[in-house]
Design a protein that fits this description.
two-stranded antiparallel sheet; alpha+beta; 163 residues; 5 helices; globular; 33% helix; Muramoyl-pentapeptide Carboxypeptidase, domain 2; 7 strands; 5-stranded antiparallel sheet
């Protein structure tokens, strides 16, 4: 599998880490030979989020602290292709209507992740985020309050909120 993605998953919130890894591996196995799933972002610091927010053209509506990535509960993906059939996955499949994207989106949604492509405004097609056990979405404001109150713990060098 993709070492880069597996390293990124290690920065996901511990409450979702093992399940996310299992879902990543299972989803990859549903893709045909020569196609691989990569998580381009999982955990993102407030600073990284602010830099992304400042980019133009606009790629994020969220400032540092306002993204579920900042709490290790979200991930963005890309589909990589081995165009030359040499075992090197370096071509990004940008066509969101490709059957590979459908496999990824359908699989992740069926496993309970919220997809940014379903949002009413500012659709974020490569974005997924975990949901609470009750199926509701995490709210960044609630997560930020926990962080501000230091209702947190450190794991893998990252400060996470208690959930």
């Amino acid at each position: 599998m993709d070492k880069i993605t597996l390293e990124r998953i290690e920065k996901a919130h511990p409450i979702i880490r093992e399940q996310l890894k299992a879902h990543y591996l299972e989803c990859n196995n549903k893709l045909p030979k020569g196609v691989r799933l990569r998580f381009s972002h999982v955990f993102r610091t407030f600073k990284e989020q602010d830099e992304l927010f400042a980019k133009r053209p606009k790629v994020s509506n969220a400032k540092g602290g306002q993204s579920i990535h900042n709490y290790g509960l979200a991930f963005d993906y890309v589909v990589l292709l081995d165009k030359d059939k040499n075992g090197i996955f370096e071509t990004v499949e940008w066509n969101l209507k490709s059957p590979y994207h459908k496999v990824v989106v359908d699989f992740l949604k069926s496993n309970g992740y919220e997809w940014g492509g379903d949002w009413k405004s500012f659709k974020d097609y490569p974005h997924f985020q975990a949901k609470k056990k009750d199926g509701k979405s995490y709210n960044w404001r609630e997560l930020k309050v926990k962080l501000d109150k230091k209702d947190t713990f450190i794991d893998n060098g990252v400060e996470y909120v208690n959930l």
